[in-house]
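F.,

This is the one I mentioned.
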Protein backbone atom coordinates (compact mmCIF):
# COMPACT_ATOMS: atom_id res chain seq x y z
CA UNK A 1 0.00 0.00 0.00
CA UNK A 2 1.17 3.49 -0.80
CA UNK A 3 1.90 5.72 2.19
CA UNK A 4 -0.19 8.57 0.79
CA UNK A 5 -3.26 6.29 0.92
CA UNK A 6 -2.90 5.31 4.57
CA UNK A 7 -5.69 6.67 6.74
CA UNK A 8 -3.21 7.83 9.40
CA UNK A 9 -1.53 10.06 6.80
CA UNK A 10 -4.71 11.93 5.86
CA UNK A 11 -5.23 15.46 7.17
CA UNK A 12 -8.86 15.32 5.99
CA UNK A 13 -9.57 12.33 8.24
CA UNK A 14 -8.20 14.11 11.30
CA UNK A 15 -10.21 17.26 10.51
CA UNK A 16 -13.37 15.22 9.91
CA UNK A 17 -12.94 13.23 13.12
CA UNK A 18 -12.14 16.31 15.23
CA UNK A 19 -15.17 18.13 13.81
CA UNK A 20 -17.49 15.21 14.50
CA UNK A 21 -16.20 14.76 18.06
CA UNK A 22 -16.37 18.47 18.88
CA UNK A 23 -19.94 18.59 17.62
CA UNK A 24 -20.67 15.57 19.80
CA UNK A 25 -19.08 17.31 22.80
CA UNK A 26 -21.50 20.23 22.32
CA UNK A 27 -24.53 17.92 22.54
CA UNK A 28 -25.08 17.91 26.33
CA UNK A 29 -24.85 21.71 26.49
CA UNK A 30 -27.16 22.26 23.53
CA UNK A 31 -29.64 19.62 24.64
CA UNK A 32 -30.26 21.72 27.75
CA UNK A 33 -31.10 24.62 25.44
CA UNK A 34 -33.29 22.41 23.25
CA UNK A 35 -31.35 23.07 20.05
CA UNK A 36 -29.03 21.20 17.71
CA UNK A 37 -25.51 22.24 16.75
CA UNK A 38 -26.59 23.66 13.36
CA UNK A 39 -29.34 25.63 15.12
CA UNK A 40 -26.73 26.92 17.59
CA UNK A 41 -24.65 28.20 14.68
CA UNK A 42 -27.65 30.07 13.26
CA UNK A 43 -28.45 31.51 16.68
CA UNK A 44 -24.87 32.79 17.07
CA UNK A 45 -25.10 34.51 13.68
CA UNK A 46 -28.36 36.19 14.71
CA UNK A 47 -27.11 37.10 18.20
CA UNK A 48 -24.24 38.93 16.50
CA UNK A 49 -26.64 40.78 14.18
CA UNK A 50 -30.39 40.25 14.27
CA UNK A 51 -32.73 40.48 11.27
CA UNK A 52 -30.64 39.15 8.39
CA UNK A 53 -31.54 37.80 4.96
CA UNK A 54 -31.44 34.02 4.59
CA UNK A 55 -28.67 34.40 1.99
CA UNK A 56 -26.46 36.30 4.44
CA UNK A 57 -26.93 33.65 7.14
CA UNK A 58 -26.08 30.91 4.65
CA UNK A 59 -22.94 32.73 3.48
CA UNK A 60 -21.78 33.33 7.05
CA UNK A 61 -22.09 29.59 7.75
CA UNK A 62 -20.51 28.55 4.41
CA UNK A 63 -23.73 26.73 3.48
CA UNK A 64 -26.20 26.84 0.62
CA UNK A 65 -29.55 28.53 1.18
CA UNK A 66 -31.34 25.25 0.39
CA UNK A 67 -29.52 23.74 3.38
CA UNK A 68 -30.33 26.63 5.71
CA UNK A 69 -33.99 27.09 4.74
CA UNK A 70 -35.32 23.81 6.25
CA UNK A 71 -33.28 24.51 9.38
CA UNK A 72 -34.86 27.96 9.68
CA UNK A 73 -38.32 26.51 9.15
CA UNK A 74 -37.79 24.12 12.07
CA UNK A 75 -36.45 26.94 14.22
CA UNK A 76 -39.48 29.04 13.33
CA UNK A 77 -41.84 26.21 14.33
CA UNK A 78 -39.95 25.98 17.63
CA UNK A 79 -40.51 29.70 18.25
CA UNK A 80 -36.85 30.78 18.07
CA UNK A 81 -36.96 32.85 14.88
CA UNK A 82 -39.45 34.34 12.51
CA UNK A 83 -39.12 34.66 8.75
CA UNK A 84 -40.58 37.74 7.08
CA UNK A 85 -40.57 39.14 3.56
CA UNK A 86 -38.33 42.19 3.28
CA UNK A 87 -40.57 45.26 2.86
CA UNK A 88 -37.97 46.90 0.59
CA UNK A 89 -37.47 43.79 -1.58
CA UNK A 90 -40.23 41.19 -1.46
CA UNK A 91 -37.92 38.56 -2.97
CA UNK A 92 -35.75 38.54 0.14
CA UNK A 93 -36.68 36.71 3.32
CA UNK A 94 -35.41 38.21 6.56
CA UNK A 95 -34.86 36.11 9.64
CA UNK A 96 -35.07 37.65 13.07
CA UNK A 97 -35.02 36.36 16.60
CA UNK A 98 -38.21 36.03 18.59
CA UNK A 99 -38.31 37.02 22.25
CA UNK A 100 -37.54 33.37 23.11
CA UNK A 101 -34.58 33.36 20.71
CA UNK A 102 -33.20 36.55 22.23
CA UNK A 103 -33.68 35.21 25.77
CA UNK A 104 -31.79 32.03 24.90
CA UNK A 105 -28.59 34.03 24.45
CA UNK A 106 -28.16 34.43 28.22
CA UNK A 107 -28.51 30.67 28.74
CA UNK A 108 -26.14 29.93 25.86
CA UNK A 109 -23.40 32.13 27.30
CA UNK A 110 -22.10 29.17 29.32
CA UNK A 111 -21.79 26.86 26.29
CA UNK A 112 -18.30 27.99 25.17
CA UNK A 113 -17.00 27.58 28.73
CA UNK A 114 -18.53 24.12 28.88
CA UNK A 115 -16.80 23.08 25.70
CA UNK A 116 -13.53 24.59 26.91
CA UNK A 117 -13.86 22.42 30.00
CA UNK A 118 -14.41 19.35 27.85
CA UNK A 119 -11.26 20.22 25.87
CA UNK A 120 -9.15 21.12 28.93
CA UNK A 121 -7.24 17.80 28.90
CA UNK A 122 -6.11 18.48 25.33
CA UNK A 123 -2.39 19.24 25.77
CA UNK A 124 -1.89 21.05 22.46
CA UNK A 125 -4.96 23.30 22.65
CA UNK A 126 -4.16 25.84 25.31
CA UNK A 127 -5.76 29.28 25.43
CA UNK A 128 -2.52 30.66 24.00
CA UNK A 129 -2.39 28.13 21.15
CA UNK A 130 -5.98 28.69 19.98
CA UNK A 131 -5.29 31.81 17.84
CA UNK A 132 -2.66 29.90 15.86
CA UNK A 133 -5.10 27.07 15.25
CA UNK A 134 -7.80 29.56 14.21
CA UNK A 135 -5.35 31.10 11.73
CA UNK A 136 -4.45 27.71 10.27
CA UNK A 137 -8.09 26.63 9.94
CA UNK A 138 -9.09 30.02 8.47
CA UNK A 139 -6.35 29.59 5.86
CA UNK A 140 -7.65 26.12 4.94
CA UNK A 141 -11.21 27.46 4.67
CA UNK A 142 -10.16 30.44 2.54
CA UNK A 143 -8.13 28.21 0.25
CA UNK A 144 -10.89 25.66 -0.31
CA UNK A 145 -13.99 27.83 -0.55
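My design for it:
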Amino acid sequence: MQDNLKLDNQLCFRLYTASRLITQAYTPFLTRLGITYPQYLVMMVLWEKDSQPVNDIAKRLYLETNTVTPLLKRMESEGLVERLRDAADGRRVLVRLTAAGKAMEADAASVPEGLAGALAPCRSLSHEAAPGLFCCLDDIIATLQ
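The radius of gyration is 18 Å.

Talk soon.
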